Amino acid sequence: MQSQHVFDQKSALYMAYFSLLGLVSLSAGIVDIIVSVSGAEYSAGILEIPNSGFRGVWGGLVMVFSGCFYLSGIRNSNEIHQFAKVVLGSILLWIMAGTDIFAMITGSIPSEDADHWFNTSRSFVDAYAPPYTPAVIMLPFSLFVIFYIRKYRLHQSVSIHPATD
Amino acid sequence: MHLTPDERWGLIEEISRRTLRFGIHKHTLKDAIGDFTVKPATGIPFAIAILFVFWSVFTSFAALITDGFMIKIFDNHWLPWLQQHFPGGPGNWVYALMVDVGQRQGDAIVASESCFDSFGVLTSGLFLPIGVVLPALLIFYLMLSLLEDIGYMPRLAVLIDTFLHKIGLHGYAIIPTILSLGCNVPGVEATRILETKKQRFMMMTLLAMFIPCGAQIGIMQKVIPQYIGFIMLYLFVGYFLYGFIMNKILPGKTPEILMDVPAYQKPLGRSISKKMWMRTAGFLREGVPFVMLGILIINVLYIFGIIEFLATAMAPVFEGWFGVPRETAGPLIAALLRKDLAIAQLGAIEMTKYQMISAVVLVTIYFPCIATFVMMLKESGRTFLGSLLALIIVVFTYGGLLHLIWKIMGVA
């Protein structure tokens, strides 16, 4: 009973974290769409929203969906279907970050010079330097959901098979 | 061995006791995610994200292999080597067919600088399937196999089934459609998963007309990023509109399908590599020779001046019916080989933004590239002529409709 109470308390904290992540994701998606449609670019510190046209709008839409999943899943998150929405929100964020990182990797390998096959080591490393897209910046923060899944599973197994003493 | 009914029931009980576990099934996180990816409200956003992965990974990988390495191999090494060593040289017809037709400048024939321009069976004929299509196929087959093995493809098929039934197709038609967003060649091959001739005919025709390949979308994004949304929307509407019309007028069956939706599971490396090998080997064995044959035919038409004649003859139609400048005839002919480069060529022609949208739509719908064309010919057999006829009708009606829209808006 007490463990349930502790889990619920912690869950509230975790869900506050995920709701913040959802809000950031939603905002980033909206900005991404606006920037892409307007044809402008946005850059601040290590953050960059490039004007990638069609890709930007599509990717922005995925970020918006990610934010919506997070926000719709935070209420009553101990219920499995609600929690699944939070996980889906994270999966969409990983999709965005994964495709951005993959584009970074593929762009860093070949040389732009017609006479050389591969990039110089300096240009290769430079390709991974900031600024980054919002999804890449949010990626480490979204990985927290893996920890929470473990916590959640542990809690579920304890709830199903309570200790008998 | 003869068993009495009691012994038989005993055996059944023993087998089930050893192999089955009984208990109360509690919905797991995996089950819940599985449910959400099928329900429209949550499944469609997820499907949009998965399609984004498909497209984004494809364009990044194709840029890496084709632009980063293949163009260098073919244009900087293979073409110059053949130009130097192949017997005959410029002016010789065997050389022109096999290596380089050359660019006519006055009376002189100047050697081509890229495998795109050379139109030779050993240059363009190899560059197109190996340098452009194969890298696209490899990454697409990998992603498709992964999604199949994870268990997502049946969910996507279920999700989209209702929409596609309205145009006489079913959920699995999403696979050739997605594949075509990367490259139309595997898309045409993938129409084999559809049951009836009518469905295959419709799918091939719709793919050839309304689904731009990844290379094409990529170049659109570079050359005309501000119009790409309109163009994709117009193509998307065309896909459903003409699908609906074809479904109504074509004879044949469009059966219902029963889909099994398995639980999500971890993909197996061996299964994925086997599938990839089977599909890639199939393309190398069947697709490459057809593409080379297609290049040979184009080359012959080019040498005999038939393509130039067509471009000149069609110029008034382009201006009058489609409302685009007569210079677009050149890129439209180039689109027979590579649509992405045809769009790049359009970018260099001076025209209004409305003409540009019309021209890019025309490049997409007017004719499949030669690689897709020969694959369609191979896959559809006798119905190919029907496909071609449908294509011509669509180009004239849909291309003309766009011009009409601009006229009504007062911008044409």
Count of spatially separate domains of chain B: 2
Give the number of DSSP strands of chain B. 2
Oligomer: heterodimer
**Helix share, percent of chain A:** over 70%
Rg for CA atoms of chain B:
25 Å
Largest β sheet strand count, sense and barrel closure of chain B: 2 strands, antiparallel
Total strand segments of chain A: 2
What low-confidence regions of chain A span 5 or more consecutive residues with pLDDT below 50?
Answer: none
Number of helices of chain A: 6
Widest beta sheet: strand line-up of chain A:
1-2
Structural class of chain B: mainly alpha
The helix tally of chain B amounts to 19
Helix content of chain B: over 70%
Strand content of chain A: under 5%
What would a concise description of this structure say?
The complex is a heterodimer of chains A (165) and B (412). With 165 residues, chain A is mostly helical.
Structural features, described:
The complex is a heterodimer of chains A (165) and B (412). Chain A has one domain. In chain A, α1 packs antiparallel against α2, α1 runs antiparallel to α6 and α3 crosses α5. Chain A is 72% helix and 4% strand. Chain A is mostly helical. A two-stranded antiparallel ribbon of chain A has the order 1-2. With 412 residues, chain B is mostly helical. Chain B has two domains: 231 residues, no CATH class; 107 residues, no CATH class. Chain B contains 19 helices and two strands. Chain B has a two-stranded antiparallel ribbon. Classes of the chains: A mainly alpha (165), B mainly alpha (412). Chains A and B meet through α2, α3 and α6 of A and α2, α3, α11 and α12 of B.
